[in-house]
Each structure stands twice: as C-alpha cells, then as structure tokens.
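I hope you will forgive my troubling you with a question about protein structure. I set the record out below, with my sincere thanks for your time.
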Amino acid sequence: MNSRRIRLPIHEATLILVIVIAYLVLNGTSSGTLLSEAAFIGLLGYLSLSIVIGFSQLTVLAVGQLNLAVGPMGGTVCAVAAVLMAKYQLPVPIALIILIVLAVALGAVNGLLVNLTELNSFIITLATMTVFVGVQYGLVGTSTVSSYSAALKGFGSTNIGGVPLVFLGVLLFAGALSVFYRKTRLGRRSLATGANSQGAFLLGIVNKRSVLVAHTLSGLCVGVAALLVMTSASGINRSVGGDWLLLSFAAPIIGGIALSGGRAPVLGTLLAATLLRLIDVARSTYALDPSWVNFVIGGVVLVTVALSELRRRTADRRVRIG
C-alpha cells in the first residue's frame, strides 16, 4: 500500500534548520531566558505582527507588483480607529470593523489607480504613501492617542497554554491565505498573471482583476497588522508603521518569492519573519546597533535576490539549450 508523504521544500527546510539553531544559540547565550513563559509569549506576540506585515507585501509581489505604502496605510487606519474610540467614544467592535474595511478600501484604491493609470505600482504606491503619511500626521499630530479601551490594548498578551491568541489567529490567517493561492480559481489566476501576464491573457485571465485582487488582499493584511498593533500598543502616534517597509520586503524575499511574480510562499514568508524576529531579539539581547542589524537584513535580502535571479537565468538558459 502506497502512503502519501508530505515533502517539505528544501528552502523552507533550510529556514527551519537556521531558526532552530539561532533559537538554541540565543537561548544558550542568554542563560535560558528565551525559554521563560513571559519571553516566549512576547516573542510570539511580536512575531505575529511581523508575519502579517510580510503577507501584506507577499500578495502584491505574487503578481509582480509592489506596495510601498504598507506602513503608512497601517498607521493611518490605526490612527482612525484610535481617534474614533478615544475622541468620539465609538464602541470597540465598530471601530475595529471600520479599521479593517478602511484598510481593504485603501488597498483597493492602490489597485484601481494602477489599473486606471497603467503606471508602475512603484510610482502609484510611492504617491499614496506620501498621502497616507500626511493623513496619519493630520489625525494624531505629535501626540499619542492612548485613551481608548484598556481591554483592547491588553488583548495581545492573552494566551492559551503560553501561546498568544493573536498568534493562533495569525496561523489561521496564514492557512487561509495558503488555501486561497493553492485551491481557489482566483488565487491560481493571480499567480498565473504574475508568472506570465501575456500567457495568462491568452488563457482568458483578466490581469487587471488579478492586480486589483492583489492590492485589495494587501490592504486586508495591512488591516490585520493594524489590528494587532491596536491589541498590543500602549497608544497610537505618527510613528506607527514607520518601520514596516523593510520587513514587508525582507520576509517574502527571504521566504523564497520571485520578484517577477508567479509564486506565493506563505510558509516561507512565515519562517523568514520568524528568523527576522530572532535577529531583532539578538539585537536587544546583545545591545547591538540597530543600523548594523538593518545592514545585515538588507545584505541578506540582496544576496537572496541575486541568488534567485541567478537560478532563474540558469533555468532559462537550460530551457533554451534543451
């Protein structure tokens, strides 16, 4: 009787190995503090945000697009929700629904602008990024909005058996995203657009629809990330989202995505976000200069992109020879 085996791709398996080694090294050099319940809960809590930020870029990279506005989008919707709760006393559930709907709408606006103008998504999202930065500053200014639900701000630390509820929610979200790309027609068509837009068009796929779906999904991921911020931050100010951009690219790129599109490595992005989070833990544990950490992450991203491009060119050369 033949049994079906689940084979883990070599890239994801390598990331898992590196993560395990890095965690053991960090734990050993920090006298075992990473194994404490409080440290573990904190690690998974911050990791949840990193994963979803990576997904916000993954969805657009999968169709060969970019979204430079992920951080300001997240900061804007956080500011809107915080002001609605603190200033206008809007109930928490309604404010959070508005947060998600607004994030999805902002993502859809990016997609519509790309389709209508037919400009590169780099230009469009660079422009909307500037607009969102201004809106965020207009909402909170130089102050911090913190007088909203204390229960909401403390929800991020709620856990079951030492595992934060928000982390379990993010795992479910990752599973749903993976099913979307693997099992649904819309997801597969989006990947087909990213892999070869001309070929997808000849097959009857509406590429503009795929672009709109990708940016709308990116907005949804930004909304989920903003929701996680609301459940863990002590307050919302203009700095929220300011450090999301590098992480949003680093996680999917290290996770194995192709910049030309056609792939959506959800598991790889999740694992890469975990590795990046451990690097951040190492920075705080060893009191490293943050600029050097960003230098290392940027270097890893460049090397990953270079190796990916080398593999692509090698594969194309073999196809031509064959």
